[in-house]
Amino acid sequence: MAAISMRLPVARKEVPESAGSEKHLVVPGDVITADTGYMRGHGTYVEDDKLIASVAGVVERVNKLVYVKALNTRYNGEVGDIVVGRITEVQQKRWKVETNSRLDSVLLLSSMNLPGGELRRRSAEDELAMRDYLQEGDLISAEVQSVFSDGAVSLHTRSLKYGKLGQGVLVQVSPSLVKRQKTHFHDLPCGASVILGNNGFIWIYPTPEQKDEEAGGFTTNLEPVPLSDREVISRLRNCIVALVTEKLMLFDTSILYCYEASLPHQIKDILKPEVMEEIVLETRQRLLDLEG
Amino acid sequence: MASVVLSEAEKLYIVHGVQEDLRVDGRGCEDYRCAEVETDIVSNTSGSARVKLGHTDILVGVKAEMGTPKLEKPDEGYLEFFVDCSANATPEFEGRGGEELGTEIANTFYRVFSSENCIDLKSLCINPREHCWVLYVDVLLLECGGNLFDAISLAVKAALFNTKIPKVRVLEIEEGSKEIELSDDPYDCIRLSVDEVPCIITLSKIGYRHVVDATLEEEACSLASLLISVTSKGALTCMKKVGKGSLDPESIFEMMETGRRVGKSLHTSLQKVLDEEESLGTTRQKVGFLG
């Protein structure tokens, strides 16, 4: 039977200031400090001998450097980050990849693995066959190789764990909500795998049965995904959306705890505001217990 | 229309999911996303409503102004629709980009509301052939998250429910000329009956099945959609096919049946929320845009 839930909007609740966290939150135009002894970093500017914030975020201090870490910002690439991106253009010897940053990222043909793991110079035939490897709209997982002076990011997929992504679900979140960890590829015990891209693109996909060593992401598995895997993937997707709405950091443990807290509810109910709050509260509690 | 680009594998995943009645966010094929409805948020209109359906955000304002009735219908008032696709929704709507979509939506609403009984237009008449109320319905698209027509029709119905038209009296002074007098009490107004106002249900064909309330990703996977307008009693008033794909007659019948079923429950849910809001009266805390 069709389920249609309509409701009146509820005003946002004031988040209580959690004890012990004296975060100095600023909005653009707020004075950070009138002390001139500090070096100014990103997100600040000087006016009338006062240091003023130019973005909305948290003020961070490292020795004499003061900078503002923005909460909702475009992705700023750093070398070594894992990103999930979508191909927007196929150009002469490169692909342009959309990674939610200020400029499109670049994936050079020479930074891409050839099928079979061959190591050779890329020839003219490779250039002509670029569209057979990656087309507009394809999703890839890659690592940041370098950052150009204008901030554009150059990617590479020179490892077998990177490459074209197959069937799955993409969730787009703010890059500041993805926690930096040792590894961003997680095989969750609930039955699905997740790639937490540093640029805020989260890719959820069914865990492949055997590890295809030679594939490197060139052959996409087009078989229908079984219903049980689909349920896990949908539930994970809704849990991630719930965590993001309540502004919790995303990492494998938080996602797993949220998944477990959501099991008593139906998958489509997770997106209801009251259920979302309840689940995230439980997750937050478990994470605090884990720390303390 | 705002659209997302998807890879072939993603589209395949969505299509297979719909076949098994489990969409990406866990909904079934006939489930709507959670909707938020609020009325009376714009102060200088006769009636207004805002509907948030997932990521789709629509604001509708209704202004009642006096005008002359149309020549072919001298004892009725009429509605005028205008849809503004703001650049807020997607960069494609910048400048004149949203005009095409806006006129398409407005024309669809003219068709939907052209059926005889949806709104009592005779009650909008003040003086036959001379004065009548014209309701200017302005729709503003704030965010495009898929399923525009449904959200806009919900917002239009809610705004018409909320519309308060001031009571006027026609006085006959000598020489046969008439004067219109506005009543002194600002709360003295007539409300419209929206029982027969239809709602538009969009059914998108994905693979071999059809879904209701498609998100942007699902719209990218569907080649053809059927827009039907259904009244609260389940009567179909208008039907339109969009999209470059084809629909065979059997699937059209199935979609119509689904649409009528879903339409009836959509009307009941909306009416329940509107009545709840009405019963709160002045104690209701207005959330608006800064809540």
UniProtKB/TrEMBL annotation, chain A:
Tell me the PANTHER family matching this sequence: EXOSOME COMPLEX COMPONENT RRP4, PNAS-3 RELATED
**Chief localization:** cytoplasm
> Some GO term, biological process aspect, for this entry: which one?
CUT catabolic process
List where in the cell it is found: Cytoplasm; Nucleus, Nucleolus
> Subunit structure, per the record?
Component of the RNA exosome core complex (Exo-9), composed of EXOSC1, EXOSC2, EXOSC3, EXOSC4, EXOSC5, EXOSC6, EXOSC7, EXOSC8 and EXOSC9; within the complex interacts with EXOSC4 and EXOSC7. The catalytically inactive RNA exosome core complex (Exo-9) associates with the catalytic subunit EXOSC10/RRP6. Exo-9 may associate with DIS3 to form the nucleolar exosome complex, or DIS3L to form the cytoplasmic exosome complex. Exo-9 is formed by a hexameric base ring consisting of the heterodimers EXOSC4-EXOSC9, EXOSC5-EXOSC8 and EXOSC6-EXOSC7, and a cap ring consisting of EXOSC1, EXOSC2 and EXOSC3.
Asked whether the keyword Nucleus is assigned, the reply is yes
What are the residue boundaries of the S1 motif domain, all occurrences included? 78-158
Q: Which domain of life is it from?
A: Eukaryota
Q: What's in the keyword line of the UniProt record?
A: Cytoplasm, Exosome, Nucleus, Phosphoprotein, RNA-binding, rRNA processing
SUPFAM superfamilies (UniProt xref): Eukaryotic type KH-domain (KH-domain type I), Nucleic acid-binding proteins, Ribosomal L27 protein-like
Output the lineage of the source organism.
Eukaryota, Metazoa, Chordata, Craniata, Vertebrata
Q: Say which family it is in.
A: Belongs to the RRP4 family.
Say yes or no: keyword RNA-binding present. Answer: yes
Q: What cellular component GO annotations does this protein have?
A: cytoplasmic exosome (RNase complex); nuclear exosome (RNase complex); nucleolus
Q: What is a single molecular function from GO for this protein?
A: RNA binding
Gene label: Exosc2
Q: What is this protein called?
A: Exosome complex component RRP4
Organism this protein belongs to: Crypturellus soui
Automatic annotation (TrEMBL), chain B:
GO MF annotations in UniProt = mRNA 3'-UTR AU-rich region binding
Domain named Exoribonuclease phosphorolytic is located at: 32-166, 197-261
The record's subcellular locations are: Cytoplasm; Nucleus, Nucleolus
Q: Which GO terms describe its cellular component?
A: cytoplasmic exosome (RNase complex); nuclear exosome (RNase complex); nucleolus
Gene3D superfamilies registered for this protein in UniProt: GHMP Kinase, N-terminal domain
Principal location class: cytoplasm
List, in alphabetical order, the GO biological process terms annotated in this UniProt record: exonucleolytic trimming to generate mature 3'-end of 5.8S rRNA from tricistronic rRNA transcript (SSU-rRNA, 5.8S rRNA, LSU-rRNA); nuclear mRNA surveillance; nuclear polyadenylation-dependent rRNA catabolic process; rRNA catabolic process; TRAMP-dependent tRNA surveillance pathway; U1 snRNA 3'-end processing; U4 snRNA 3'-end processing; U5 snRNA 3'-end processing
Q: Which UniProt keywords apply?
A: Acetylation, Cytoplasm, Exosome, Nucleus, RNA-binding, rRNA processing
Q: Can you name the source organism?
A: Crypturellus soui
Instruction: Give the protein's recorded name.
Output: Exosome component 7
Q: How does it assemble?
A: Component of the RNA exosome core complex (Exo-9), composed of EXOSC1, EXOSC2, EXOSC3, EXOSC4, EXOSC5, EXOSC6, EXOSC7, EXOSC8 and EXOSC9; within the complex interacts with EXOSC2 and EXOSC4. The catalytically inactive RNA exosome core complex (Exo-9) associates with the catalytic subunit EXOSC10/RRP6. Exo-9 may associate with DIS3 to form the nucleolar exosome complex, or DIS3L to form the cytoplasmic exosome complex. Exo-9 is formed by a hexameric base ring consisting of the heterodimers EXOSC4-EXOSC9, EXOSC5-EXOSC8 and EXOSC6-EXOSC7, and a cap ring consisting of EXOSC1, EXOSC2 and EXOSC3.
The record's listing under Pfam families reads: RNase_PH, RNase_PH_C
The family annotation for this protein states: Belongs to the RNase PH family.
